[in-house]
Write a structure and sequence with these properties.
This protein is of the alpha/beta class and 482 residues long. It contains 15 helices and 16 strands.
């Protein structure tokens, strides 16, 4: 006798209607009353067709839920999620090829700030940037070799992100690299664009002019108003940086209008007033968008966020997210980038085998030309996957991706939020557990809570302003055409 059971899913409500998020397909469906009642019944325990006979239109409802794989017959094999590791070089032109799309170029490993919580220079650092073997500044020759490496490995479109340390400490090499990359990309029939991350301390008129004229995307690392910024983002003598950077940022925003300029905020146990920070950075400073990330640090550090801190952060994220909803319903801009990014992933049905592109479509380059998983591991011998001169070490890349595939993270196998999380940041896992392959269990509840909030927002918008999601499709079409 056939019995039916619910398959892995997460039910949520939005705009007064029931929805379901299906795992691992990452599909989202609005449920009618019959489907909702039946799915809830089968979530309690499996039932036979006869046990379900009291439901109206039972055969039609069973067929609908089975078609989208929300339910399945007991004993039938679950849907197979193939373990695909797309590693073939681009030159092979196979469907399994994943070109390098973004190269993060660490043009220096030095910084003029001494931020207490910094993962690169603080107590949690993994590379000795003061006395280590890597040069403190990337040379022009190494930058050129890095560009050539990127263009060999990239598809038609390549992205270079300049990073540090404090990126602008090596501004002359940045200038030369932009010119060289444009020249070489044109020669090989590819396009290249640029972005950079900076603490804004070194912005001055000629630098701002260069950034604006070259349409370089900018992310500013800043933590909020003066009392917040000056708590951790300080110079080596302990002096705060807010009074120096605020006017420089305002001038950059005034002059550079060809691309949105975003703020990137690090949240700590002493810095969790998300709404206050957001208001200051958007209303008072003028940032187009603001993104927040909890500090990456060992659990024993005083600035580490604990369980109740994650709860406070989630409450504030939720409030900002619902502000975003009301703006989106009226087709007004709202700059809370965390929710924007998650909504786009939900709309596109993202189901990740890996938490990010590190080691795959994104690689970091150290000042000496060593290629690492990402910018956070640049200069670490233990996380090296090649050099810009010799290319990617495919063996090391394969070993890394095999180990870090979501199927190997047993803690994630029963988590409904894994399609978007996939275990979390490798660097976070290394810092917390000493192993990049570990799932970041310390913030699982936070991730599930935030994903649920974003699902509710997705449902709200799908009912109240479904045309809103066209922006994500337009962005996809534009990227496909470029």
């Amino acid at each position: 006798m056939i019995a039916w059971a619910a398959r892995e899913h997460h039910r949520f409500e939005a705009a007064g209607k029931p929805f379901v998020y299906l795992v691992p397909s990452a599909a989202i469906f609005e449920l009618d009353d019959a489907a909702d009642a039946l799915l809830r019944t089968l979530s309690d325990r499996p039932r036979t067709r006869e046990e379900l006979s009291a439901f109206d239109n039972i055969d039609e409802t069973l067929a609908d839920l089975a078609r989208v794989q929300a339910i399945g017959e007991i004993g039938a094999p679950p849907p197979v999620s193939p373990k695909v590791i797309p590693l073939a070089p681009v030159a092979f032109e196979t469907a399994r090829s994943v070109p390098l799309t973004t190269m993060v170029l660490n043009v220096t490993n030095q910084c003029n700030l001494s931020c207490t919580y910094c993962y690169e220079y603080g107590e949690d650092k993994i590379v000795d940037t003061a006395n280590g073997r890597q040069p403190k500044f990337m040379t022009e020759d190494t930058a050129r070799e890095s560009v050539d490496f990127l263009l060999r490995e990239a598809g038609d479109v390549a992205h270079i992100t300049f990073f540090g340390g404090e990126t602008l400490l090596n501004f002359p090499v940045l200038v030369k690299t932009v010119a060289y990359a444009r020249q070489r990309a044109a020669e090989v029939g590819k396009s290249v664009d640029f972005s950079l991350t900076t603490n804004a301390t070194l912005l001055k008129p000629e630098i701002i002019e260069f950034i604006a004229e070259n349409r370089i995307g900018v992310t500013i690392s800043i933590d909020g108003p003066k009392d917040v910024q000056d708590k951790f983002r300080v110079f080596t003598n302990g002096a705060g940086s807010y009074d120096l950077v605020a006017p420089k940022i305002r001038e950059l925003l005034r002059r550079h209008r060809t691309r949105p300029i975003g703020a990137r905020v690090t949240l700590t146990s002493a810095n969790l007033d998300v709404k206050k920070i957001y208001r200051h950075l958007t209303d008072d400073i003028g940032f187009w968008e603001v993104g927040f990330a909890p500090v990456t640090t060992a659990a024993t550090r005083g600035h580490a966020i604990s369980g109740d801190g994650y709860d406070r952060m989630l409450d504030q994220f939720r409030e900002l997210a619902y502000e975003y909803v009301e703006a989106a319903v009226e087709n007004r801009h709202h700059g809370f980038s965390n929710v924007q990014e998650t909504l786009e992933e939900l709309h596109k049905g993202v189901s990740k085998a890996y938490p990010c592109g590190a080691g795959l479509g994104l690689l970091g380059v150290a000042t000496d030309g060593d290629v690492a998983l990402c910018h956070r591991f640049a200069g670490s011998d233990a996380h090296k996957v090649g050099t810009v001169r010799d290319g990617i070490d495919r063996g090391a890349q394969i070993a890394f991706l095999e180990k870090h595939h979501i199927s190997n993270k047993t803690d994630c196998s029963v988590c409904w939020a894994r399609p978007l999380c996939s275990g979390g940041c490798y660097h976070e896992a290394h810092t917390r557990y000493g192993d990049t392959g570990r799932a970041n269990l310390h913030y699982c509840e936070w991730i599930r809570g935030w994903t649920d909030v974003c699902l509710q927002i997705y449902g709200e918008l799908s009912v109240r302003n479904p045309a809103f999601f066209a922006r994500f499709e337009d962005e996809h079409d534009a990227s496909q055409a470029s």
